[in-house]
Design brief:
heterodimer, A: 114 residues, mainly beta, globular, B: 113 residues, 4-stranded antiparallel beta sheet
């Protein structure tokens, strides 16, 4: 089983649609949670951190359910510029509680059409 | 404020050769992590350097080695290249003892023929 699993995608949606990405992780010791965005042939960029209380940044809402080991990202009123691959990420520290090893899902591609 | 920089941007090698990739972290960052991203996959963690020591390592063979210099820059070395090593190699920098918010460089595209 993969450590982080995401919807396989791709998602093709019209402008203005609401789209939801789902992600599950297998290691209950995972400490921090993020969504990254990656444009074609570019590096991943941090979109937002994810907290159990839920957090919102404009049109983007992220949610974490530790009990179910489930992470979600909701994009409202999608724009053409939202087209990208969305990567679900969890972190694990080492035995000495150091470091932040990022563990990525395989990514879900989103294509927003006019 | 310069972000994370990597060199070279592209590289073509043949099987069996060795390659060295370089990374300079974002100003103020002291930790460097390396990731390999194959086509259509998410990045896979290779290793992380902090205080010039390897602090964590992913499931990569010993052919993959690294180094961090006193100025916090880092190198990734891959020996005995295989076709399967063709990928985008990403460097990420962060700061502090627990380094979780990581910022990525543009990557080096390696093609092994």
């Amino acid at each position: 089983r993969k450590e982080v699993e995401q919807d396989p995608g791709p998602f093709n949606v019209p402008e203005g649609a609401t789209v939801a990405f789902n992600c599950t992780y297998s290691n209950s010791a995972s400490q921090s949670f993020f969504w990254y965005r990656q444009d074609c042939r570019k590096e991943p960029k941090l979109l937002m951190s994810v907290y159990s209380s839920g957090n919102e940044d404009g049109r983007f809402t992220a949610q974490l359910n530790r009990a179910s080991q489930y992470i979600s990202l909701l994009i409202r009123d999608s724009k053409l510029s939202d087209s990208a691959t969305y990567l679900c990420v969890v972190t694990l520290r080492n035995f000495y509680n150091q470091g932040g090893k990022l563990i990525f899902g395989q990514g879900t591609e989103l294509s927003v059409k006019p | 404020d310069a972000g994370v920089t990597q060199s070279p941007t592209h590289l073509i090698k043949t099987r069996g050769q060795q390659v060295t990739l370089r990374c300079s972290p974002k100003s103020g960052h002291d930790t460097v992590s390396w990731y390999q991203q194959a086509l259509g996959q998410g990045p896979q963690f290779i290793f992380q350097y902090y205080e010039e020591e390897e602090r964590q390592r992913g499931n990569f063979p010993d052919r993959f080695s690294g180094h961090q210099f006193p100025n916090y820059s880092s190198e990734l070395n891959v020996n005995a290249l295989l076709l399967g090593d063709s990928a985008l190699y990403l460097c990420a920098s962060s700061t502090g003892y627990v380094q979780e918010t990581q910022y990525f460089g543009p990557g080096t595209r390696l093609l092994v023929l």
